[in-house]
Amino acid sequence: MSPTLTVPRAESLLEHAVRYTDERRWDVLPGAWLETSRGRIGCSCAVPGCRAPGAHPTRPDWTAQATGSVAAARRLWTEEPRAAILLPTGRSFDALEVSETAGCLALARMERMGAALGPVTQTPFGRMQFLVAPGGAPKVPGLLRQLGWAAVAPELTVRGEGDFVVAPPTRVGARGSVQWVRPPNSANRWLPDVEDLLAPLAYACGQEPR
Fold this sequence. Notes:
The protein is an alpha+beta fold. It has helices spanning 13-23, 62-65, 70-79, 100-113, 140-147, 194-206, and strands at 29-30, 34-37, 40-43, 85-88, 94-99, 120-122, 127-132, 157-159, 164-166, 171-172, 176-177, 179-182. The strands form 4 sheets. It has a 5-stranded antiparallel beta sheet with strand order 8-5-7-6-12. It is globular and about 50 Å long. The model is unreliable at 1-9 (pLDDT under 50).
């Protein structure tokens, strides 16, 4: 009798949301979700041409919905297991977002230099997000000017207070899921300051053809 192959069970969105609140103390927010109708994947918001199907807040007052409670997170995703996991920025962390090309270039350079890095995500839209200590977002425009990289500002998106990032393993429409390039772990619990990552990210953005 041949042995049976055991396939590991994929963790649910609920399990991930609970782990983010329990292990990282991050606030989480349930967002929209994907629905299939007549063989087509669409967003629960039912807005034609939704730009981020299944990966955006569902209410204007979404910042008040976010919770850092493990019990609340468990209840919210039990009520709607398909809900996207959104992580509000400006609370436990801010995020520096660049293209996948620039992000890979900067990441390789920082790893060679032994730079302290926090978690990094990759979205199915070809973007990478580097998590940094909260409070750094307002400094970025001035820091870019000081570094002489003001021209790359349009290529570098800063997510701080009042914004959010989509957390793995949330799926965004038919494009695929958000993934961790560098997952959160005990080694990157302390996030780098925005000043530590801005120069290599700005340099990488400046190398992209325009």
